[in-house]
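pasting input
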Amino acid sequence: MIYLQVLANGLVLGGLYAAIAVGFSLVWGVLNVINLLHGSFIILGAYVAFFAHAFYGVHPFLSAPLAGLLLFAIGYSLQGAVINRVIRAPVLMTLTLTFGLDLLLNNAMLLLFKADYRKVVLDPPLGSIVLGPIVLPLDRIAVMILALLMTYGLYRLLRDSKLGRAIIAIRMDREAAALMGVDVMRMQAVTFAIGAFMAGAAGSLLSIIYPISPLNSITFLGKAFVICVIGGLGSVGGAIVGGIALGLIESLTALWFGQEYAVPISFALLVAFLAVRPTGLLGRRGYE
Amino acid sequence: MSALLEIDRVSRSFKGLRAIDDVSLKINAGEIVGLIGPNGAGKTTLVNLVTGMYPATVGHVRFNGQDITRLAPNRIAKLGIARTFQVVQPFPRMSVGDNIAAGALFAGGSGSLADARRRAMELAQQVSIADLFDQPAETLTLARRKRLELAKSLAMSPKILFLDEVNAGLNHAEIDDALRLIGRISQSGITIVVIEHVMKVVLSISTRLVVLHHGQLIADGLPEVVVRDGRVAEAYLGKRYVEASRGAPA
Amino acid sequence: MRTIVILAIVAAFFTALIFGGNYALRLATIFAMYATLALSWNIIGGLAGYPSFATAAFFGLGTYASAILQSSGMPMLLAWPLGGLTAAVFAAVIGLAILHLKGHYFAIASLALVEVLRELVNINDRLTGGGMGLNLPVTQGGVTQQAVYFLAAMLALAVITLLSAAAVHRGKLGFALRCIQQNEDAAVMLGVNARLYKAAAFTLSAVFPGMAGGIYASWVHYIDPSDVFDILLSVKPLVMVLVGGLGTLFGPVIGAAVFLALEEAVWRSFLTVHAAVLGALIVALILFLPHGLMSINRRRLGAGRT
């Protein structure tokens, strides 16, 4: 019976994880840039929610779009001003660049917010629901639902909107897209900004579950990596599958080996997947 | 006398599409074989199979009696099979000399870098790019890049050399030069397979003609005979044209 | 120009040693260590073009292997090479699993190694002391004596690494790696056994950092997982090589010197923002000087030249 609980825990977490990773997957899949700032973007979004709650009593769920917009602006500027300039450079360059940018952002956050862990404490707390043998905290369920809604929103944006079509066109063939009238540089900035938006909004949502500190940004970046590799790049479905997979892996590992094994095992699986099936469970797609 | 290269009932599929369909072919030492066929017939695929880029799904490839069907490309290169690429593949930032030396060093049997560079200079002179010996390969014009590609493959001391569309993008004078060069290479003892989709060019130097169409071998023999084969005309010009003109193509 | 720079570094080095006291000795030891790490990384990252982030994994493995051996009574001078050997074997084995990957995938896989190893060391605390760290046997001699001893050890390692790197650059392996970096598929068709050469490069990029780790552990007498399996130890050598000139022979050494000078200057003045300053340096480097300092006065041909 405990397995049902573990399964449920994993699935619920999976929804949030999908939202955490989908922005990262978009930037990697379309721009071929691994955004090492992603973890810090998430944390920044969480801080927005934290301070909005602490000073103005705003519920983190309401802060999510706000955090998303702030991160959108930051992401747009960064891509436009900095990353666009090296987007054709070898992997080494873009990776190192985003690493350097992350050092800057992370250090800035440490100075501004200090390293202390913050947590958003909802008052009154949401409580739990009981479904037969399973106990599920309502806050997590709410987060999962909102995260999945957000992810679905991104999916529709990519498939159905003109913006989405333009982004996909760039991924397929940059030169052809330019010839078709797509402003490639601007679209790249928008893509990165959307990725940042998703990170910020997801960060707001998770502020009620996880403690927040700039020291944590690397944890979420790591999760995003694992989710993208296991699930598969280039599709929203990949992020969802990967997110659920990671949620389940963490829950099961905690059950069988202990909580402290969750991260190393997920990373070991990352290496294993890279070794035998780097395109992930769903395979590498192109957002078609 | 057994064949130098034997392609034995080889097929290759890509995700359900049969690129090469039950092809059998024997190439003997000293020949200049023209491998022709319309675009998409599978000529380059066949070369890729022989040189080990990917394995055949069915069948065997034998070189000097040795089964090389599943051998790694670098091993095959060392055995004496070389090819040029349709889209030339140099090492862009390395000098012309070093590009050629690479072939000599890793497949051509040169014992040291110095030896390989000496051999590279000889070959550069043979193909008339010695004056560019120290230039980075990426600065070369297309015609010269093709000659570099040729020199690289010659540096590998091959027994058999596949020339994949060496004439694409060249003007008439350059093509004539290329053909003379190919003749000289054949005289030095290297068996050559020339892949072309322009009939006229390949007819002037081949001792034998092999025709591929939709991955199948549809003709194999003396050039004069193959050229008059109805099926070959059909492959190039389409059934209706052949029937309309009733007979051999001009 | 390049010889002037190198002579300047050497001169500064010995001046500092003579007049600088223990602080200078410590700085020189770190320089030797940085140079070793950078030269090693350059073989897989610069010559072969495979962006490895595994340096910290090799370094950390070396520290722990060497420390554990010493706590069972093995002498330092034997434990250090064995630390290097451990890292080398690890690299050779893991290489089989990840060297077929390209670009981002390879980078992430190599990065993940650091994380996995760190957590494994943390968890196996009976062997490694876990998060509490591991103490190493105390060495004989006064403070200055020890400082000189360890400087000599690191320097010797740096020289060995430099000589090995020179042999690679000038020989067949370096030539093969350059071919692989510029067009791996064409290289293979030309007869290059890419699998073997990449594995050799990856192993070489591990053995010296492993030994450096061993010496480091003995030098500081105490190691813990977050200290030695630190991603920065993978990134800093990379940045040093970028500063000095990717794929060149002396670039890593020059880059290590410049980087260390900057690091010391910044650390002393801007403690709270030193990460940010490093970040800014990296961004500026990538945007404005991607070919490093050595490219300023010399065109890169990438073949047979250092």
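fyi The first helix of chain C runs from residue 2 to 47.
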